[in-house]
Amino acid sequence: MDDQPFVLLVEDDPANRGLASRVLSNCGYSHAVAIDGQDALDKVAERRPDLILMDLSMPGMDGWEATRRLRADPANATVRVLALTAHAMRGDREKALDAGCDDVLTKPYRPTELIEAVRRLIGEIAAD
Fold first, then answer.
1. Of 14, 91, 108, 124, whose CB has the highest number of CB atoms within 10 Å?
2. What is the pLDDT of residues 47-65, one digit of tens each?
3. How far does CA 26 lie from the centroid of its chain?
């Protein structure tokens, strides 16, 4: 296994998925893509990521439920999760943190905001 941090991008929207994937690739991050919460849990079972970029609103199993299930599994309870969400109402950030997310990035976001959040959370992994 290489020492490069591995990121799992969970996003159902093709445009958002493409943007985030390009940002990760351009910054040299190894990553995989999942299109919904169940796909994310399946991918985590195959290879535990260092960081998950989790869209919260998806058809099927949403990011809220996927994060709760991830946190319920002791093997994955410490994986960092960055919520990517269009939910920007008062209390939404707290709701995402309560579900188990480590931080929240509100859509639409700038590529620089995404990579700053990724670097910060990956830096926190290295500091643990």
1. 124
2. 999 999 999 999 999 999 9
3. 17
DSSP string, 68-120: HHHHHSTTTTT-EEEEEES--STTHHHHHHHHT-SEEEESS--HHHHHHHHHH
- Token readout for 54 is 């989790």
Q: Is residue 94 in a domain?
A: yes
β-bridge pairing 30-34 and 80-85: unpaired
pTM of the complete model = 0.93
DSSP conformational letter for 7: E
- What's the token pair of residue 2? 């290489």
34: domain range?
7-45
Q: Is the pLDDT of residue 1 over 50?
A: no
Query: Mean pLDDT, to the nearest integer, of 18-41?
Result: 96
